[in-house]
Amino acid sequence: MADVRTISLVSRAGSRRLPAFGVVVGITGAAALISFVATLVRLPTLLAAVYRFSDAPELSYIAQGLATGHGPQLLPTQTSIGVIWFDELLQWLPFRAGVEYWTGPVLTVAMGLLLVRTAHLVLGRKGTLLTSVMLLVLPTVVLWPLLFPDNHVTTYAAAVLLGWHLVLDLRHRRSVWRSAIVGTVVGIGVVTDPQLLAFGLVPYIATVAVLRRRVTAPQVRSLLVTLCGALVAIGLAFVVMNAQGIRTIAILPGGSGLSGVVRGIGLAVQTLAWTIGGEWYGDTMSVVAVGLCVAAAFSLVALVVVGVRKRAGAEPGFASLDISFAGFGLFWGMDFAFLVGAFVFLGYGAGGAPMQGHYLVGCYVAAAALIPAIAVRYGPKSLTRWRSGAGAAALGAVGVFSLFAVNNAVSTATFDASLFYDRLQVPAAADPLPVLLEHGLTHGYAGYWESYDLDWRSDGVLSVWPLLGGAACAGGTGNLCPYAFAPKGEYTPTAGQTFVITPWTGGESCGRSLPSVAIFGPPEAVYRRGPYTISVYGYDVASRLSKDASLFC
Fold first, then answer.
1. Side-chain half-sphere of 72: how many Cα atoms within 13 Å?
2. Residues 1-48: pLDDT tens digits?
3. Which end of the chain is more exposed for a tag (fewer CB within 10 A), N or C?
């Protein structure tokens, strides 16, 4: 009798199917949470390090200069004009610095929540959970550009907004006001960073074009309203910028022909390895990264192949896609492809500089949308229904992602935060800030990497503006001149003492020697701190700066 009961229990247990989704969320979710906790613990340190990298606080001081009428201003196109205008509105608020400090993280969180909401609309509960799991894991090469607003985070946020808007339209939830607002945001984003054309606007248009036979006339009208809003916003943005004396300049690398394309492909592959392996720009490709990349590619392809074959045979209507699902997949797939294509064929990898890989961070956002869609569409409903093929592919994908997440947690926990500013800052024992404060020196000039850093860390007590030197300045190698991307009015001479800090970190021949005595006269006082020399003058040295400068040294 006991044997019969045992056989009956085993039979019933064996007939139950192990739910694949529960296994996936349980294992990958736990691994993702470990990675997320590691990021949260390190976030204060990492964010502080980001703001030692002068590109981060630079927007705050450009906005300050514009708000106080110190334009005109030249901007590179990747600088976020929207964030500058936002910072201008904050200029006289006591908590301004704190708000600016958290702008990048807040935009990142908002972007993530909106992407999760879009996944919920298209993929349901499963897609929501899987997208959330993907976004909980942020490798350092991805996290770094997201922490400050001068490195494409506004572009990624605008692309996610556009993807959400597209899905709502395709689900027959149209709104003229929403179309106009989204178009306005996207238009300002394009002025901010033309990368949004490849990673957002062009894929949006192309998606509607591909689905044209299934798109209704009202949905086409929504597209037209969005595009009109973008065009109007672009025009108005340039009008406002012109009124403020702001001009933009696109800094594009040379393509270098076929060799540039080859190097671009190589750098794209290397950036993928850094992302998967939890490494930093410039690291050598590790065995862990290579193994995870190969395993990820194999498991994803296997999952799709097995899923298509099994479902096509078992479910005759499988080939028919819901239009919102199709639009979601097409939009993010083209975002991914167009961004990589622009990176390669515009020559961003031509110089071989590892940091150029940050232009590809949007691919991670696209992957966070696409991989859950693939899993929901092609993944098994249980790990026993499709027997070994689908089960092995699904468990392989789960294992690869879990290893990726745990490895990322270890990398984040042990990451050298000084790399966030490329080793450009000196140790505390060589910091010139205490010397400046001790001697009451508040107005001066330095190299790019020192100037905004000193301003930011002094909490506004100092006013230090960047200089160029060497070949950038007309009138001889001893001349110094204003930095091209700073408000010109900040170099108008005023009364009182000023100082010049040399050498300039990050410069090759620019600012390595002391200011020319023939041009600026002998300094009234000289202070030294570590590698730095602080030359103090009884007048504003801006009165003797060369007025003719190129962009860089």
1. 10
2. 444 343 333 333 333 444 666 777 788 889 999 999 999 999 999 998
3. N
Q: Which residue has the tokens 């899905």?
A: 167
By CB neighbour count within 10 A (0-12 exposed, 13-18 middle, 19+ buried), where does 87 fall? Answer: buried
| Residue 4, pLDDT score | 38
So where are the chain's domains?
Answer: 20-419, 428-544
Of 459, 453, 199, 206, give the one whose Cα is nearest residue 337.
199
DSSP string, 300-364: HHHHHHHHHHHHHHH-GGGGPPPHHHHHHHHHHHHHHHHHHHHHHHTTTTTT--GGGGGGGTHHH
Helical H segments across 102-216, by residue range: 103-136, 140-146, 153-170, 176-192, 195-196, 202-210
> What was the pLDDT predicted at 5?
42
Give tens-digit pLDDT for 291-313. Answer: 877 777 777 776 666 665 665 55
Fill in the amino acid letter for 219. Answer: Q
What is the CB neighbour count within 10 angstroms for residue 456?
22
Backbone angles phi and psi of 345, in degrees to 5:
-85, -15
- What CA–CA distance (Å, rounded) separates 340 from 223? 25
Residue type, 119: A
Q: In the beta sheet, which residues pair with residue 465? A: 445
Angle at 367 between CA 148 and CA 303, to 5 degrees: 160
**pLDDT for the residue numbered 8:** 38
Do the beta carbons of residue 424 and residue 446 sit within 8 Å?
no
The C-alpha angle with vertex 61 and arms to 415 and 232, in degrees rounded to 5, equals: 100
318, amino acid identity: F
Q: Rounded to whole angstroms, how far apart are CA atoms 389 and 230?
A: 47
Q: What is the pLDDT of residue 540?
A: 95
Buried/exposed 212-240: b ≥16 CB within 10 Å, e otherwise: eeebeeebeebbebbbebbeebbeebeee
Q: pLDDT at position 318, please?
A: 44
Quick check: helix, strand or coil at residue 76? Answer: strand
> For tokens 């949905």, what's the residue?
219
Q: Which two tokens stand for residue 41?
A: 């613990």
Its pTM stands at 0.88
508 Rama sector, left if φ>0, alpha if ψ -120 to 50, beta otherwise? alpha
Helix (H) or strand (E) holding 499: strand 498-502
What distance in Å separates the CA atoms of residue 375 and residue 401, rounded to the nearest whole number?
Answer: 12
- Binned average pLDDT, 10 residues per bin, the chain of 553 residues: 38 44 79 94 90 86 90 82 89 85 92 96 90 93 88 91 96 90 94 89 94 88 94 94 87 68 86 89 82 76 64 51 89 95 80 81 94 81 56 75 91 88 71 93 92 89 89 77 90 93 74 85 93 94 83 67
Q: What's the rounded Cα separation, in Å, for the pair 464 and 456?
A: 10
Which residues lie across from 548 on neighbouring strands?
Answer: none
